[in-house]
Amino acid sequence: MNRRELLQAALVGAGASFLAGCGPGLRSLVGSKSLGVAELPPHPEPLARTLNRVAFGFNLRVAEEVRSVGRERWIARQLDANEDEDPWLALQLQRLDVFNLAPAELRDLPEGEVVIQLQQAAVLRSVYGRNQLLERMVEFWSDHFNIYARKRFAAWRKPLDEVSVIRKHALGKFPDLLFQSAKSPAMLEYLDNDANLKGKPNENYARELMELHTLGVNGGYTQQDVQEVARCFTGWTIENRFGRQRGTFRFDPSQHDFEEKTVLGHRIPAGGGVEDGERVLQILATHPNTARFIAGKIVDRFLGDAHDEWRDRLGELYLQTGGDIKAMLRPLLLSQTLLDAPPIPKRPFDFVVSSLRALSATTDGRGVLRYLVDMGQPSYEWPMPDGYPTASEAWTGSLLGRWNFALDLLRGEVPGTTVPALEGIKPIEATLGRRAGSDSLSALLLRQDLRREEALALCLCSPEFQWR
Fold first, then answer.
1. CA proximity to 56, closest of 146, 147, 145, 124
2. What's the pLDDT at 43?
3. Is 445 exposed, middle or buried (0-12, 13-18, 19+ CB in 10 A)?
4. Which of 24, 98, 359, 464 lies most in the core, judged by the most C-beta atoms within 10 Å?
5. Residue 267, beta-bridge partner list
6. How many CB atoms neighbour CB 161 within 10 A?
7. 137, 171 in Cβ contact below 8 A?
8. How far is residue 22 from each of residues 75, 132, 185, 377, measured CA to CA in Å?
């Protein structure tokens, strides 16, 4: 069976047993604004749901670990995020220049190579990392504090931001994450705060700080607040002087507005320096609207919609614990709501990583990157400051790219990637959580015109596998 015939089987093979269970949902994807969620029941088995939400999908080794220690204990370990990483993964990451060289030294590498290595590391960590919740939250905060790696020198600055800001604080406290992001040279440059000067304030960072990083678009701030916050951050820039540690945060008092400011009703006295910006961050980090906004985004990522009761509960936990991210996640991840919530669409990155994990594939992380480009989600390349979208409508156009990836993966045509000889489709069946249609997926193996690899590829193309 050639590629065209396989795609036709996935789309219009009305007589196939595959389509008996999955066809209506799959056909609904074509020209639809959704990924066919109406076709899927909301109650997969607890193990599948746990691994699809807390981790990047089902994996045989991890599934056995969860069964062995129990779901609650496994989640507790994931919250601690201190599992020793696989030595093979550590070796692959050590080979990447982006995590071994300072930003100034990285300038010897072409921008494209730096971005590719960052993307390669993201794939490797998400596929093989043992601290899967940490990887989920790194993805979450990378969207929240999005930095477009193709702007100015951001590509060379982003590796340090990834390690010292996002990964270091992904399961820590939000105020710490916010403070470190504000002083990150990558963020300073991306949102033009390094060009925020006395007498000519640049409002880009001030606006996104309140709209996207803290209060939310309806968080109660005004244009006057944006202007005042911008004044507070004048003089925050990047060190570029001879004989100094270039590429680090620097406060330049000669470019700071020392006059009095008022932010969200708080008076910031005249005569302050770098403390003006730090005071703004403290005001925003402790604001009730920030608590609700961050809680709502976390709930949306793990439950799939706002869930007002959970947003309010986690918002209160934020205020009680000083923005402790683990304290907010713990009750949510252990809740029955997580197990019962409707399916969430997989974005292309999630689809690729969960496919590799379900099939216990071996990959160098590099060969899959072109497929993510084709699907529209190459890591660190979203130009807008709001991060890659989560709504299913944003990813309908990625379906053909998903099918091409599935077919190439099972045919051994993805560079640097191999799939072991798996018996049957148990890993795929498990990651679907035995939803409606999984019996039909099993029946694929009985088709005489399909090889095992083709049957598995069609399983990855099924509507069920597009959701978690």
1. 124
2. 55
3. middle
4. 464
5. 262
6. 24
7. yes
8. 32, 30, 48, 26
Report the largest interatomic distance among the alpha carbons of the chain, rounded to a whole angstrom: 80
Which whole-number Å values give the CA distances from 242 to 107, 180, 192, 343, 424, in the listed order? 17, 24, 22, 54, 63
Which residue from 9, 52, 16 is spatially nearest to 458, judged by alpha carbons?
A: 9
Higher pLDDT among residues 465 and 387, named by residue: 387
- β-pairing, 261-263 vs 249-251, is unpaired
What interhelical angle do 3-12 and 399-410 show, nearest 10? 130
Nearest Cα to 307, choosing from 318, 317, 295, 316?
295
Task: Give the list of residues 6+ apart from residue 91 with CB closer than 8 angstroms, or none.
Answer: none
95-111 per-position pLDDT tens digit: 999 999 888 889 999 99
| pLDDT tens sequence across 329-385 | 999 999 999 999 988 999 999 999 999 999 999 999 999 999 999 999 999 999 999
| Dihedral angle of Cα 102, 103, 106, 111, to the nearest 10 degrees | 160
Residue in this structure with the two tokens 């700080």, named with its chain if needed: 209
Distance CA 41, CA 426 (A): 20
Residue 463: pLDDT band (50, 70, 90) is confident
Token pair of 404 as six digits: 């091409």
* Positive or negative: CA dihedral 347, 352, 357, 363: negative
Please give the pLDDT value at position 429.
Answer: 54
Which phi and psi angles does 172 have, rounded to 5°? -100, -125
Residue type, 194: D
**Pairwise CA distance, residues 188 & 169, whole Å:** 18
C-alpha span between 368 and 155 (Å, rounded): 20
User: pLDDT value at position 214?
Assistant: 98
Contact call for residues 139 and 148 (beta carbons, < 8 A) = no
pTM as predicted: 0.90
Q: Is the pLDDT of residue 2 over 70?
A: no
Q: How many residues does the chain have?
A: 468
In degrees rounded to 5, what are phi and psi of residue 456?
-65, -40
Q: Which of 180, 178, 169 is nearest to 325 (CA)?
A: 169
User: In sequence order, what are the residues at sequence separation of 6 or more whose Cβ sits closer than 8 angstroms to the Cβ of residue 151?
Assistant: 189, 190, 383
**Burial class of residue 444 in the structure, from the number of CB atoms within 10 Å of its CB (0-12 exposed, 13-18 middle, 19+ buried):** buried
Which of 32-41, 225-234, 395-404: highest mean pLDDT? 225-234
User: Which helix (H) or strand (E) is 263 found in, with range?
Assistant: strand 261-263
